[in-house]
Amino acid sequence: MKFRKIAIMLTLLSIWGGTMIFADATTQKVRVMINGTEQDEGGVLLEGKTYLPLRQIAEAMGAIVRWDDNNKRAILYKPNVHMFLYNGSQPFGGVNKGYQGKIKVFSQIDNVKTDLASVKVTIEDPSGKERFIQSENVTNNNDSFWFITDEFDYKFDATGKYKVRFYMRLSNSEDWVVVSEKLITSSSKG
């Protein structure tokens, strides 16, 4: 009786192990690169189709993902956001290290295909320290609008890349999503 149980168990384990080896042989892991940066989670190639982690890809591309549980579908929104930084009436894209005077961020937003609750702008220095600049609730859900921050003082203390980020928060959500990022290079005075 004991021998019979062991034989059945070994047969089942052999079938299961063979299935796992076969399944592993039919799938291949795929490395995912976006703008030269390898993503933490890769994809899978299965029967000639590539499957990728949607949320990670969307975040890397500056898109918003909303899950519709009732219909079991993922909805992807990719608004267009163009940001310009101004010192007075002069736009700039690079600076010398140090104080730049009062600056503001002008954002032009279009192709908004979902209801927004609010937007915000931040700046991150080369060491990774992020500073909040301004946020605003969105009261008119047009598919295009402008958002201009108040003037603020900012000192580019270090040389390197500063990241100005534009975030959106969807209605009925607490999560902020980065939908645009602008790089400002600060260099030594020369």
TrEMBL record:
Start and end residues of each Copper amine oxidase-like N-terminal domain: 34-90
One protein family per Pfam: Cu_amine_oxidN1
Transmembrane segments: none
Signal peptide (from-to): 1-25
Keyword tags: Signal
UniProt keyword Protein biosynthesis present: no
Name of the featured protein: Copper amine oxidase
